[in-house]
């Protein structure tokens, strides 16, 4: 498999500014919902919030679970809805995605296939952790090779790694079973590369930030349903959908914050027993 690369230049202050949108779980049918939340309506509300917030950003990062039903229409809906932001979008697959349809539809709708974005001071590396029809993640040797090669290629640039699954414990037992199974192999690859500043992921449908000795682990709310932090069993949260804004500074610092919708418009079905 060939990994495409994009070069981008940022303004004189050197910041690379990102929006993370994750776990949109869209359907072909616009009336469908996930555990009582209409996923298209909640994504549209998040996009409207982004427009209202009017913060400057350069790229959108979609970190997986774009579709819930594997349909081409669901992927088209994602592009149509997010395109109003008029910014380039990079994407990676989550456990719920169907890659043959995902690749074809997103490409047909004009999205890049690139999995490496190289800027003045940073490089972003987008990894595929999907194991077909399984909720957990795994990095195949090809992905680990791509990661190692990319990091060796630009040792002077700070690195942000993006993937769907979490490579650290997040304190939710039921979600931690569905983690990146070979996180040790991942950490072995990045260990000799101190330029790796953070891993940005989706999958856990909640705000999460943890700084280890070497790097930061950062996740974001889904644009639809939210999972309750620090819960042993499956549990939904009444927090609202949202997105994350990240500013990657020229000096390697990451300034980042989560923005959620106000109000209580998107509440999940409290009786849901599973996901
Ligand atoms: Fe998800």
From TrEMBL:
CDD domains to which the protein is assigned, alphabetical: MPP_GpdQ
NCBIfam families linked to this entry: PRK11148.1
Keywords: cAMP, Hydrolase, Iron, Metal-binding, Nucleotide-binding
Secretion signal, residue range per the UniProt entry: none
Purpose of the protein: Hydrolyzes cAMP to 5'-AMP. Plays an important regulatory role in modulating the intracellular concentration of cAMP, thereby influencing cAMP-dependent processes.
Enzyme Commission code(s) on record: 3.1.4.53
Free-text remark on how the cofactor is bound: Binds 2 Fe(2+) ions per subunit.
Catalyzed reactions per annotation: 3',5'-cyclic AMP + H2O = AMP + H(+)
Keyword match Kinase: no
Domain Calcineurin-like phosphoesterase: 16-206
Gene Ontology MF term list: 3',5'-cyclic-AMP phosphodiesterase activity; metal ion binding; nucleotide binding
Annotated residues for binding of Fe cation 2: 65, 95, 164, 203
Record family assignment: Belongs to the cyclic nucleotide phosphodiesterase class-III family.
Name of the protein in its database record: 3',5'-cyclic adenosine monophosphate phosphodiesterase CpdA
Cofactor(s) listed: Fe(2+)
SUPFAM superfamilies referenced in this protein's UniProt entry, alphabetically: Metallo-dependent phosphatases
Residues binding AMP, per UniProt: 25, 65, 95-96, 205
Uppermost EC category: hydrolase
Residues that, per the record, bind Fe cation 1: 23, 25, 65, 205
């Amino acid at each position: 498999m060939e990994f495409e690369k994009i070069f981008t230049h940022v303004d004189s202050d050197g910041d690379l500014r990102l929006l993370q949108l994750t776990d949109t779980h869209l359907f072909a049918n616009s009336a469908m919902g996930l555990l009582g939340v209409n996923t298209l309506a909640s994504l549209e509300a998040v996009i409207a919030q982004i427009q209202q917030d009017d913060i400057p950003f350069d790229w959108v990062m979609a970190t997986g679970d774009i579709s819930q039903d594997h349909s081409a229409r669901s992927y088209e809906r994602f592009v149509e809805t997010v395109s109003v932001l008029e910014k380039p979008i990079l994407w990676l697959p989550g456990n719920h995605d169907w890659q043959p349809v995902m690749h074809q539809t997103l490409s047909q709708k004009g999205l890049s296939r690139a999995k490496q974005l190289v800027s003045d001071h940073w490089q972003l590396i987008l990894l595929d952790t999907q194991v077909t029809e399984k909720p957990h993640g795994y990095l195949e040797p090809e992905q680990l090779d791509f990661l190692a090669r990319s990091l060796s290629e630009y040792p002077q640039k700070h690195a942000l790694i993006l993937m769907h699954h979490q490579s650290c414990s997040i304190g939710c037992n039921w979600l931690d079973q569905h983690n990146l199974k070979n996180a040790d192999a991942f950490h072995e690859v990045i260990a000799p590369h101190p330029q790796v500043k953070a891993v940005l992921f989706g999958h856990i449908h909640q705000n999460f930030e943890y700084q280890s000795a070497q790097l930061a682990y950062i996740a974001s709310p889904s644009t639809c349903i939210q999972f309750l932090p620090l819960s042993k069993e499956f549990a939904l949260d009444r927090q609202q959908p949202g997105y994350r804004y990240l500013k990657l500074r020229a000096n390697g610092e990451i300034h980042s914050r989560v923005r959620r919708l106000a109000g209580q418009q998107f509440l999940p079905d409290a009786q849901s027993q599973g996901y």
